[in-house]
Amino acid sequence: MKVLTMSCLAVAVLWWAVAARAGSVSDYAGDMVSLDAAGKVENTSRLFFSGGKMRVEIPAQEDMGPMVLILRPDRKVQWMVDVEARTYFEQPLDEKALADMNRSGAPAMPMGESSVKEEPLGSEKVNGYDTRKKRVTVTSRIMGHARTTVSTVWTADEFDVPLRERGETGETEEFRNIKVGAQSAALFEVPKGYTRSKNMPGMPDMKDMPDMKNMPDMKTLEGMGMPPGMKLPGQ
Prior knowledge:
Layout: H1 2-17, E1 27-35, E2 41-50, E3 53-58, E4 67-72, E5 77-82, E6 87-92, H2 95-104, E7 113-126, E8 129-142, E9 145-155, E10 164-167, E11 172-180, E12 195-196, H3 218-223
Parallel strand pairs: 6-12
Antiparallel strand pairs: 1-2, 1-11, 2-3, 3-4, 4-5, 5-6, 7-8, 8-9, 9-10, 10-11
């Protein structure tokens, strides 16, 4: 399902944007680059931050067109924008879910119960910034199954998002091309001329799905990467 693919990408970024430690820089932009274990770039998302507001521009992925996710804590709303369809889906921003994410303090999916262990690994320069390097072990229980993941994370005092995160098998997310400075207010608004949709991008119209008995519940969807606070249309 396209929406779940897009949501998984967004959640990975959103997770860091609401990290427990606030960075000293509030307005900046950069590229979140995904690399495979060999160091080859797989895709790049563009991130923008301004005074607590956030925008994630997600490129086209397989059968999914380009998407934009906008978080507005000041207005307690979040938008998922379908660029090709020129539509947007609006939901209240679940501040409790974001607070729960904050408390866990590790780069894991912020759904279900989890325990976190951190091991300092010293300091290192990443993209010109001084960072603290640490190994993070997260044991999560999602949909009744326990799972342990280990990643290495590099964080800088300046930013909410880490400058690098590397998984056990070598896949890496790296924050590059960082530009510090004021961001245009228009980046954090739905573009003019876009139409509000009743359905989340990639989801079929509910009226075309008469049998809802087999639809996954919200806990299941969250475990699959649904952004916090998102609900299915009609809920």
